[in-house]
Predict the structure.
Amino acid sequence: MHLTAFSDYSMRVLIYLALQRGQLATIAEIARAYGISENHLMKVVHHLAQRGYVETVRGKGGGLRLVRDPDSVNIGVLVRDTEGNASLLECLDAESSCCIQPACRLVGILREAQAALFAVLDKYTLADLLHKKEMPLTRILMVPKLQAGEQ
């Protein structure tokens, strides 16, 4: 399965915010830290706010912060939220127009593979993505923030 950039960026935003430990961050600093487009992140942040993962604060000194505890953000649920009901192939969907679907054994195999993927993702949380000792992610992601003179 190929995850979309939307799912990738969603996980990146949540990792960054988890490292902030409740402090506000801006879309600009997250984009700078990862070297990705602010425009794409705006859509991602909007979606994450709608789903209750992040809180946005408007105005001068505003930004966004993680609302949920990292231990409560399940990676499998997050991927389902960001990918929707995307199947590995069209034939796994109920409205498939594949003419061989009734006799095709591949459908069952792909359903099993997709279930296995989510079974693995469901075992992990946002907290599992954060390093506990020495916080190497913090050193990597906060360098652009410090270089820009932000606190």
The radius of gyration is 18 Å. The mean pLDDT is 86. The domain at 5-147 is CATH 1.10.10.10 (Arc Repressor Mutant, subunit A).
